[in-house]
Each structure stands twice: as structure tokens, then as C-alpha cells.
Amino acid sequence: MVIQDLPPEQPAVVAAAPPEWDLTVGVINATVQLDQSIDGGQRKVGTGFLIAAPRPDGTPRVLLVTARHVLDVMPGREARIGWRTAEADGVWKFTPETLTIRDAAGEPVWTSHPERDVAVMQISAPPAFAQAAIPSGWLADAGAFDRWRMGPGDELMALGYPHGLSANRAGFPILRLGRISSWPLTPIRHFPTFLLDFVVAQGNSGGPVFWTPAARRVPGAPAPDHPFIAGVLVQEVQSGGQGIDLGVVVHADYVRETIALLDQSGD
Q1: 8 A C-beta contact, residue 226 and residue 115
Q2: pLDDT, mean of residues 117-126
Q3: How much is the pTM?
């Protein structure tokens, strides 16, 4: 009897890493425009982004993250949040909806960090946006910059709506790239913000500053195992009343702390 050779074992199937552009697009899809009309035909504009942050009991929850001052300067009870809708033929439409930001007494419905320019609030998002919300685990913690050896010259990306402008009529945010331009960066209790070298304008405030593999690092630096939100853009650096192409970014760990405050409130 001839024993037939057994067929060779098939190699294990290894899932391919998502392309770099796909990870960047993921953060774009979670970023929205916030605005409110005020007297004289003017409007206040800012940027926010969505985080998937389950409640302590595990119940799913979508949070809007932005800079606190973006909401502070909107005096009305309702703002607009700029959803985008994909049509069957591939066309995207800008479909904003009202967003309640103050209660009947005029009090904020968002939760603020007591020391940093950060605000979070629970929202009801359309299914596509709820699915696009960034995992809360992507928020860099207090040790992330040291762990991944982030330093001056490393690139980070930023999303926003400078001067209320969007990338197109569908309302997608504008992507910009900058380099970390300050040192030291940690410990964050002593250095709660850092500088990013890029052109900042009104409307950028509240937007995510983040890293994906598409951003360049110093040679030899360890590669993070997933994209991460490094912080929130909160301010333009000015000298003599003029912008000098520097943004102030508050570390993302303060977003984590603000979410913890929201959890303590029971909302």
C-alpha cells in the first residue's frame, strides 16, 4: 500500500494592516463642524470630534469633544452640528442638525475640565457617525508621549474648519500637517499643552490633533501600535495681534479626565 503524502498545511491568514489613508479618513469621518448664528448675520464656528466612550456599565455612548471656549462663546441654547450624508450615487450632502448646548435656564449641558480648555457632552449621532466615532482607547494617556518617544520635529495631523471653511460643499473638515515645535512635552502635569507648527485660524479650535502612520517620525522612534489622538487644538499663538503659525494643543489625557468627570456626574 502506498501512503499518499499529506497536503501541505496552509499558511495562517494574517489580516493586512489598513492602509494609512484609511486610518486618516477614519478620523476625518469622526470630525464635525459646530456653529451658531449670532446678531448681525455673523456666526461662531468651531470644530468637534466624536469619541465612542461606553458608560461605566458598558452601555454604548457617543461623546462630542471640543474646546470649552467654542461652546462658551455660543450664547444661544442651540447650535448646529454638521452631519454629512452619503447618497446611493456616491454624492455626499451637508445635512446639519440642531444641537442643544444649554438647558432651559441657560446652563451648559456639557462637562468642562476644571483647568483646561476641554469640553465633552453626550450626543445622539446618526448611525453612520456613531459607527465612525473614535475609540476612547485612541486618546493618548499621560504616558503615551514618553512611551512612543514623541518629540520635537515629529509630525502630527490636525483637522478643522478655518474661518468656517470646509474642504468641499459636503462639509468635510480641512486636514493640515504640522511638526511638534516645543520641548519638554512631559510630564503633562507640568506641561499640559504643547506647540504645533501649522497655520491656525478661527474655526480650528476644538479639532483633533492626531497621529497615523502617514505622519513622519524621527528615525528609529518606536511605532505606536494604533493611531492616537494626541490632543485638542485650543488656541492660536499671536504676537502683536498677529498669528505666527503656531497652535496650542492640550494633551488628550485631559479629555480622558473630562470624560471621567462626566461619568461621576451620572450622565
Answers
A1: no
A2: 97
A3: 0.90
Residue 109 backbone zone (phi > 0: left; psi -120 to 50: alpha; other: beta): alpha
Count CA atoms within 13 Å of residue 106 on its CB side: 4
Q: Under a CB-based contact definition with an 8 Å cutoff, are residues 114 and 84 in contact?
A: no
Between CA 178 and CA 25 the distance in angstroms is 17
* Residue labelled with grid coordinates 478655518: 162
3-state helix, strand, coil in the chain (%, to 5): 20, 35, 50
CATH architecture of 20-265: Beta Barrel (2.40)
Cβ 180 vs Cβ 215: under 8 Å: no
> Which residue blocks in 6-113 are alpha helix, DSSP H?
20-29, 68-72
Question: Contact 175/157 with Cβ under 8 angstroms?
Answer: yes
Cα separation of 224 and 220, whole Å? 12
pLDDT at residue 92 is higher than 50: yes
Only one residue has cell 511605532, namely 223
